Here is the input.
Amino acid sequence: MKLYYGNMLESRAGVNGIAIRDIEALEGRIREIDARLKRDRAEGRLQFMDLPYEPVNKIVNIANEAQGCENFLLIGIGGSSWGSIALHTALSHPYHNLLHEDERGRRPRFFVLDNCDPDEFAGLMDTIELDKTLINVVSKSGATPEPMANFVKCYELMKRATRGYAEHFVITTDEDGILMRLAAEEGFTCLTIPRGVGGRFSVFSPAGLFPAAVLGIDIEKLLNGAKYMDSICKNPDIWQNPAYMFAALEYLAMTGKGYNISVLMPYSRRLRHLVNWYMQLWAESLGKEKTRDNKTVNTGSTPLKSIGATDQHSLLQLFNEGPFDKTITFIRVVNYDNKVELPAVFHGYNELDYFGGHTMEELIKTEQFATQLALTTHGRPNKTVEIPEIDAFSIGGLMYFFEVVVTVMGELLNVNAFDQPGVEEGKMLTYALMGRSGYARGEIMRDEGEFIIGEDDG
Ligand code: PA5
Here is the structure.
């Protein structure tokens, strides 16, 4: 993997770019952060960093036992689903579910319930047969309303569908959470997410690895990629450590230039859900009201997904000519799995006949280069993360890289990157409004500014 950041600098992006002297001024802080992170890690406070070194035999054994099923249904939300979805979209066949089972290597079809949308739920139940389905319920807390609603409903339906219902559930949860207790009572298979690992940092725990293994993704290779990236990201020198440089550039762009939008733009549709995973990691970790020492800052930049080349025809106009409030990070793929030769047809039609002798891979790479050039010409700071190909090793490395970037950003901003009080608040209100015992409903007042369209029945 390589990081090209020249287009972020003043020398290329002009007054909108970052000055080398500002990066140099951060060198000392970065070294301090590096020392603090190493100490925290050694004392067990950054457990997610050590996940790639954990044994995976249990995960692989349970995944092998799951091979007979036709469907694999993941129930989870946020950090408990984005990692698995990202891995599947990047590393399985793009039309996995539509392939014949032999073409899928006899791996199950993959479905996700990561909402509490009744129409989606009912639609899925119309589509799959539960007695041919393995359900993996992933929830660290075992209390999040959306996955738990899906779980209890699936449990009820599965019990009706088959006597051996317990064999259709694998629960992935916190070591001593309520789901663990329930699983023991019901006889469900269980996998654990280590206590100190938060949802959005759990992709290298059973939360991300078990679904990946069931779907035939080489999880050893994925973890090797993460370990390799760990070795690169241990360097205390900002000029030698791509994760530290990435974080420093984003920090300087945000705090020094007021760029409050951070775009991630891979030139591959296979990485579209990896961007969702990254957005959640970035937003929940860095969007904070308070610093660690309790000062109100309301900080964080907004991550934005853009897919090349598709969004060249939707967002790029804004990136090139709109306000100077964004940084753009490309993900460039050096070798795509397929080239797809373009034919020389329709001679005499200038719009079409120049394709002959070229490949689709060449076209998408050219478009990425052209976009990067156009943005730089317009003084728009941009950088590029280059991966050699989309395989388990590169994806493992890339996800680990972003986890380190976000951790270091948290340190630079002096916020706790590992909590999410703004999410918890919404959960508490939902519990109260839904009548969960122990949560007071209180007086839920209709807001003065509320506008009711049609009949208000309560
Ligand atoms: O990253 C996080 O911590 C959150 O996004 C959680 O993953 C999400 O709220 C789901 O929580 P749980 O796994 O407890 O159901």
Summary: Residues 77-80, 139-141, 144, 147, 198-200, 284, 420, 423 surround 5-phosphoarabinonic acid (CB under 6 Å). The first strand starts at residue 2 and ends at 4. The chain has three domains: 2-39+224-413, 49-217, 421-453.
